[in-house]
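User: I'm writing a short report section on ligand binding and want a predicted complex to refer to. Could you take this sequence and zinc ion and write out the structure as tokens? A short remark afterwards would be nice.
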Amino acid sequence: MRIANLSGRLVIVTGGPGAETAYDVEKNSNGRFGSRPQAVYDEWEAFTSWAATADLAGGTAVDPVELGSPAPEPRQVLAIGLNYRDHAAESGFDAPSGEPPVFTKFPSCITGPRATIALPPGGHVDWEVELVAVIGRRAYRVTADEALSYVAGYTVGQDISERILQMAAHPPQFGMGKSLPGFGPVGPWLVTLDELDDPNDLELGCAVNGEQMQHSRTSDLIFSVPALVARLSATLPLLPGDVIFTGTPAGVGLSREPQRWLAPGDVLTSTVQGIGEMRHAFAAAKDGAP
Ligand code: ZN
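Assistant: Sure. The structure tokens for the complex follow:
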């Protein structure tokens, strides 16, 4: 199953690429489930049970421009650094062995899969395509073996990063440099794991103006999604609808020779196999405000 946020309403999506149809959940469930996309994760088990046999009607064509984040208002947004060996190496670090480096993106940075993102004046804004996991039920001290049963599904994310702000303090302030408005695009929809041929081996990548910048597979993750859910939930409860950015592979602008940053007019496309594509334009912020 795929669920999406279409003009702020929760929908179930069917159909192939470019021909997707959306079914409004509130209308099809006669109000049993509400219209707010974020609220569905609080009733994920009941929702998936209903959706498995629902006779959907009143479908409308999906206009990608109307899509928002499938998890637009998470209570917690966790992110993992250096979770691919090639990205750790290009960043000048040893690959983490004992514990994954964890940071947060503040939830106000979340945006949808088709937004225009404002570039702060003088900033060095960089891309980081990532597989994103969304939590489907409260997970606290769960094992890796059972971890995926706490995941509602996967989607595509961009951990957009302003490197000057990120490195402006010592130690670096990841949460600030990665939380500007629009710096947490997620979408185009959430895909449940049963829809994926192998949820542990998904090709992912991103391109700037059609030029490929990153290309890898999630089988190269140092800490897999089950391992991350187990380790994160060992410390804090993961809540329904929480968003986990699982880390980015090599090819970020920071590590290029010469370094490369997003500029006004650039278009960033981000894909994960079996899930879909996000497409973002970048524009100069006016007077420093997005
Ligand atoms: Zn990242």
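A remark for your report: The chain has two domains: 2-67, 69-284. The pocket of zinc ion is lined by residues 79, 128, 130, 159, 245, 247-248 (CB under 6 Å).
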